[in-house]
């Protein structure tokens, strides 16, 4: 049986987090990334698909936030 984070990752894969119809939904998708593994999947997805600078910047900020939380 998976953990809560595994279930969240399965429920919201990168394409659901980053391919929303408006930017508010994309921001919410990024804000709810629970861990670095999910974040890395989102970065890889964005790089392979649309490679939007603004989205990659937000993902970078989220990575910094997750690293701070680990301290």
TrEMBL record:
Residues 14-68 form the DUF8129 domain. Residues 1-12 have a biased composition (Acidic residues). It comes from the Archaea. Residues 1-20 are annotated as: Disordered. This is DUF8129 domain-containing protein. It comes from Haloarcula nitratireducens.
